[in-house]
Amino acid sequence: MRKSYMRIPYTDVLAAPTIIPKSAAALSGAVAALHEFLAAPLSSSSSEAGPSTALLTGAGISVASGLADYRGTNGTYRVNKTYRPVYYHEFLHNHEARKRYWARSFIGWNTLHKAKPNATHFAIKQLNDLGLVRSVITQNVDSFHSQAHPNLPIVELHGYLRSCVCTSCHEELPRDDFQNELARLNPAWAAFLQEILASGALDTENPDERRAKGMKTNPDGDVDLPGAPYTLFRYPACPRCLTNPPPAGDGTRATVVVDSDGAWNPTSTAGILKPAVVMFGESIRPSVKIAAETMINDADRLLVLGTSLATYSAWRLAKQAKDQKKPIAIVNIGGVRGEDTFFVDLDPDQTGHQGARVEISTDELLPALVDRLKLSSTAHPAHEASDYILEARGASVFKDMLS
């Protein structure tokens, strides 16, 4: 019987938002509303430095870096209804599924170093410099936040792609090192990757041009090569488990078997490496969940950026802030899951201090907001801001590589 899989939530178009306040439909009005949201004093704040804001971010803020989002107008779940990511249990128990995943990820990973943080990420750094933003919870696994503002506390809700993690001993391995091992174990694929790079197939963001070059890109850095021999692809075992096999459930030692080149053998009972992200069907670690909830508890208000809150792990954090009667502002292109509940009790005449709903790109809005705040005396600089030069945006094939 065919196995049923967990349904990807909210892949249909969500209801269009109601802009709050109405003046926020224009850039100047949106800047004014968010200025009031961030800078207005709150009677509930106990901090001498002024009210603190937590950010909750999603894939929409990385679009300007060349990474596609999921549920936006051109999001993958909108334009490719047949796409299905690999699920955690499938990856864990199916050797062939892991071959397919790592082969396609091997091709897509190369553009990681071309994708860089954009104006939104650096504007967040400046909001922290101004003493307005104290923490970030992100659903993104691209590590752009930690690159752009390493001193700002960050919870990576869904993990990160910069590492692989062993499913047995939980040891992490840098993804770059893993990529080198994949190239060593699969010389024909490594040569093929160099041909693809030389052809420029990974440099274009036009799906028609990629298809013309024999490639199809799905979400999360999944590069589909029709007819490719995925079954021949090899991947390494966890080096720690290979040296020191972990205990098995029956009190004996697990077995980790590799071939003559060091590739994981399916007779093994441990030593499987996976991307250090939360796959579909996998649970968020309790420590991460608690850290995110603590950030919401400690903040005076919540600013949501570039996410439809379609995943429950993110939506529940916004609901937590709402239940605590904290002001919420949402900036997202397109609808947001149950967003009316976040604004139902606002004064219709309020101009931003109670909440805001904006539908303007964050890479346009946030830098303008920072400029406005720098002219205001209501900000409380935490430390002097540094100047940053934005690097060129990368190719869109690298997104989150969850599949």
TrEMBL record:
The answer to keyword NAD applying to this record is: yes
List residues of the Deacetylase sirtuin-type domain: 32-376
Recorded GO MF terms: histone deacetylase activity, NAD-dependent; metal ion binding; NAD+ binding
* Entry-linked Gene3D superfamilies: SIR2/SIRT2 'Small Domain (3.30.1600.10), TPP-binding domain (3.40.50.1220)
Q: Which residues form the signal peptide?
A: none
Residue sites binding Zn(2+) per the record: C166, C169, C238, C241
* Pfam families per the UniProt record, alphabetical: SIR2
Which keywords belong to this entry? Metal-binding, NAD, Transferase, Zinc
State the PANTHER family in the record.
NAD-DEPENDENT PROTEIN DEACYLASE SIRTUIN-5, MITOCHONDRIAL-RELATED
Q: What is this protein called?
A: Deacetylase sirtuin-type domain-containing protein
Question: Organism, per UniProt?
Answer: Xylaria flabelliformis
